[in-house]
Design brief:
The chain has about 500 residues and is α+β, with helices and mostly antiparallel strands. The protein contains 16 helices and 7 strands. The strands form 2 sheets. A 5-stranded mixed β-sheet has the order 1-2-5-4-3, with helices on both faces. Strands 6-7 form a two-stranded antiparallel sheet. The longest helix is centred in the last third of the chain and has 21 residues.
């Protein structure tokens, strides 16, 4: 347990000394650290405010290599990432960037309100008037299959490509739903603005900390109404979630009370404690955890799956909408989490006779090594090429096949869903696998579906798969299993 710090310094926001309990990650060179300590000592001696050094921004810079080769071709199988594609310090943190034009052309084009440089009022962030040119939000579109970190929605070329998978009525309905509900670039930028400013404020408490945007907002599976998940990384190793993480979040909560752009910070003491709050400027709800590192790793794994094949994102969005409509997409109420649903979709797409997507952890182990330095994780999969599948099933056929697979094919009592191995693996006597539904977390091996611990809830989930499959295979109209208009309105 950490030593409890003195009362929070509201006005001057000086370091409270808690950082001395954490090892300093190697973000800066030794000379930078020496200069940092000297400047802090000089500032303290003269009673002057001290500005923390700026963390080197993470950029998706083009690699000095040949254009990406489609996955599945002979040259793609032999392709390896060059070890000299990145330097020692240029990958040290995820950042769309704390600098960059708030009223960017992309934001104006997508219809988001652009705050005036002279905006005044209680709910403002310094970053709203301090951002400058050079944001990675405008970085190159592709390195491999992945878009730049600032891009959330499909571009015109990708939408044209999706039309080939939407030639029947059901598939067109799925595509229309996806286009209406997918997270837009300006939705993502609003979340990034808050993340970047909160990171600067929290660095007054923990100077070497970083905040990562995680979850569906960054993985590519978010909608326009998605909340945002944040991970505060304060040290390289793990943190005692029961005690130390709660203490860190309590300090951050006190800080949030002094920030005009943060509303209703609430500390939730769960297995992985979180600080819930609302950004008053964008209206976005945030969940902040401490050092839940596996969330960063799986975000970039899922992000690669999301963009490696054009049909993945529409199918995942549809299934999350479908599950939510029938009340089986809420882990807090004993059903399936959105993360579990995504893994179930990926598993199905991997295990078809002609797979729609590959097994990334098997085919590119160097990009998703489970002990990779966390600050290198965002850059790991940047050069993975698109996957060219021989499976040309339409969106409607894939949705119907997904429902049938879990209604009639998958053996819930005998198998564990594994995206890591791209197959169903036998259950063992491990405690995690004594649940009704077992879905392997790709990095730490835990059961992401452990919330489904009541037989009644399990049977309700199974019956809904079966009922929707029976209806859809006869009607071939999405409205018979999901009200499309209502779903678009609740995007």
């Amino acid at each position: 347990m950490f030593t409890r710090s003195p009362s929070f310094p509201h006005k001057r926001r000086q370091s409270n000394g808690l950082l001395s309990h954490f090892p300093v990650p190697p973000i800066f060179s030794q000379q930078q650290l020496v200069d940092f300590q000297r400047n802090r000592a000089n500032s303290a001696a003269h009673g002057l405010p001290f500005g923390l050094p700026v963390l080197p921004p993470y950029q998706w810079n083009p690699a000095p290599s040949s254009p990406p080769v489609p996955h599945g071709s002979p040259s793609a199988k032999a392709r390896k990432r060059r070890s000299d594609d990145h330097g020692q310090y240029d990958l040290k943190r995820q950042c769309f960037s704390p600098t960059g034009p708030h009223n960017s052309p992309a934001a104006r084009a997508s219809g988001s309100p652009s705050p005036s440089p002279t905006r005044q009022g209680p709910a403002t962030r310094p970053s709203d008037v301090q951002r400058q040119a050079g944001s990675p939000l405008a970085s190159p579109r592709r390195m491999g299959c992945l878009p730049s970190l600032g891009e959330a929605s499909q571009d015109d070329n990708e939408l044209v490509g999706l039309q080939s998978a939407a030639k029947d009525k059901l598939s067109q309905q799925i595509l229309d739903l996806f286009i209406s509900c997918q997270q837009q670039d300006d939705d993502l930028e609003k979340k990034e603005l808050c993340r970047a400013q909160l990171q600067r404020d929290i660095q007054m408490l923990f100077p070497f900390s970083r905040i990562y945007l995680t979850g569906s907002s960054l993985s590519g599976f978010g909608t326009r109404s998605s909340d945002a998940d944040l991970c505060l990384v304060i040290q390289e190793g793990s943190v005692d979630q029961k005690n130390d993480a709660v203490h860190v979040l309590s300090l951050v909560q006190k800080l949030c009370y002094t920030l005009s752009y943060i509303d209703r910070p609430q500390l939730i003491r769960a297995k992985v404690p979180i600080l819930k709050f609302k950004d008053r400027i964008s209206g976005v709800e945030f969940d902040l955890n401490v050092n839940n590192i596996v969330g960063i790793r799986n975000t970039f794994l899922l992000r690669t799956y999301a963009y490696i094949e054009k049909r993945v994102r529409p199918i995942v969005l549809l299934i999350k909408k479908w599950a939510g409509y029938y009340g089986i997409n809420n882990a807090s109420r004993g059903t399936l989490s959105s993360y579990t649903l995504v893994l179930m979709v990926l598993h199905y797409l991997q295990t078809l006779p002609e797979p729609v997507i590959p097994c990334l952890q098997r085919d590119y182990p160097e990009c998703f090594f489970p002990t990779m330095d966390i600050h290198l994780v965002p850059n790991g999969p940047r050069s993975i090429p698109p996957f060219i599948s021989k499976n040309q099933s339409s969106l409607g056929e894939l949705f119907l096949g997904f429902l049938k697979y879990y209604a009639t094919v998958f053996k819930w009592d005998k198998h564990v869903i594994s995206v890591r191995q791209a197959k169903a693996i036998p259950k063992t006597n491990c405690t995690d696998w004594r649940k009704f539904i077992c879905v392997e977390e790709p990095f730490d091996g835990s059961n992401t579906a452990r919330a489904v611990h009541e037989k009644e809830k399990f049977e309700a989930i199974k019956s809904q798969f079966h009922a929707s499959w029976q209806v859809l295979k006869l009607r071939k109209d999405l409205n018979f299993v999901l009200p499309v208009r209502q779903s678009k309105q609740n995007r």
